[in-house]
Amino acid sequence: MSKRAMTVLISLSSALFGIVIVFYSSLFLDPETATHVVIRDIGIAVIIAGIVPVVFERLLLMQASEEITKEFKDHFDPVSERLEGLTDNLFAVKDDMSMLVEEGLQIINGAEKSGIVNIYPVRSASGGSTASFEKVIAEILTKKRGEEISEIVLGGIALNEFFGGERFYHTIEGQCLKDANVQYKVLLLDPFSLSARERAIAEENDEGYGEDPKFRNSQLYLQIKSSVHNLKAIKDRSNEKKNKRFNIEARFYDVGPMAYFVIGREWLLIEQYHSGQAPGRSGSMGGHIPILQVKANSSFYERIRWHSDYLWKRAEKKDRTLDVVYKELFEGEVD
User: Fold this and answer.
1) 312 to each of 164, 241, 249, 307, how far by Cα in Å?
2) CA–CA distance from 123 to each of 185, 221, 247 (Å)?
3) What's the whole-model pTM score?
4) Distance between CA atoms of 38 and 191, rounded to whole angstroms?
5) What distance in Å separates the CA atoms of residue 112 and residue 115, rounded to the nearest whole number?
6) SS in 3 state form for the chain?
7) Domains (ranges, CATH) in the chain?
8) What is the pLDDT of residues 71-122, one digit of tens each?
9) What confidence tens digit (pLDDT) does each residue in 117-166 have?
């Protein structure tokens, strides 16, 4: 039995004993005698002595309960306010997450309707950031085609990653040596066009590059010249081998560069070109915009294919072929 329970039991027993004493004095003693008065008063005193501790303990408990309640309230109110603030924050986060999910779904739905299946980091990034993009290009270039000849269209300004002697150049060169079932149509910016000079001015951030001799020393002109040299080497090698399946042709367009693109049978990779540099900056402006991968059975794919056909036919009408441009670039030079 607990100490508190023992105290209550003793107090109640004392009060009961006092009641018995008072009851005894009332029944068996003469009310007029002093003995009756003394015994009655003793009984009353015993009753009071028994009740007072219980009442006093009860009062103490009530006071303690009030103090505890007040202390709990003092501590709980700030916690409650913080919980309310946290709840508000959680609802705000929930709303933000719902908005992000909704925006994400809108982007996904828009991409799906447009035929976009992936977005790759910029080509100019170093390390693994371009690995997935290069993997897709390699798949487009080297996918096994059986006996069916595939056409691949490459479009850009200089396309040095394909014909600058690095990266995909050796892949294409190897296909030439093996007489692979692939035909390349390559579209490059005409180095003798007004558009090329305007692009050089934008890249070098210097109006002087619109005129010779600066223009012919610009990065743009030299990169196109390098690609033309390597393109001609692959084409000559293919002719020497008398390839029946592998073929590569190039045309040179004279309009402002719109995009870098790789068109295969199943996919299109495209990067939007831009003009203009940050103040004080110079150099190639290509490779700084994310690349979209687009599936073949889409309007997006078809329109870029029509765009490449237009540039090809326009260059053919003006006789801007690989042999012609190569001769203009290297005439008088020792190869």
Assistant:
1) 21, 26, 10, 9
2) 21, 20, 27
3) 0.69
4) 133
5) 5
6) CCHHHHHHHHHHHHHHHHHHHHHHHHHHCCCCCHHHHHHHHHHHHHHHHHHHHHHHHHHHHHHHHHHHHHHHHHHHHHHHHHHHHHHHHHHHHHHHHHHHHHHHHHHHHHHHHHCEEEEECCCCCCHHHHHHHHHHHHHHHHCCCCCCCEEEEEECCCCHHHHCCCCCHHHHHHHHHHCCCEEEEEEEECCCCHHHHHHHHHHHCCHHHHCCCCHHHCHHHHHHHHHHHHHHHHHHHHHHHCCCCCEEEEEEECCCCCEEEEECCCEEEEEECCCCCCCCCCCCCCCCCCEEEEECCCHHHHHHHHHHHHHHHHHHHCCCEHHHHHHHHHCCCCC
7) 3-83 (no CATH), 115-330 (3.30.870)
8) 656 665 676 667 667 676 766 766 777 777 777 788 888 888 889 999 888 8
9) 998 888 775 444 466 778 888 888 887 666 677 899 999 999 998 998 77
Residue with tokens 């000079």: 197
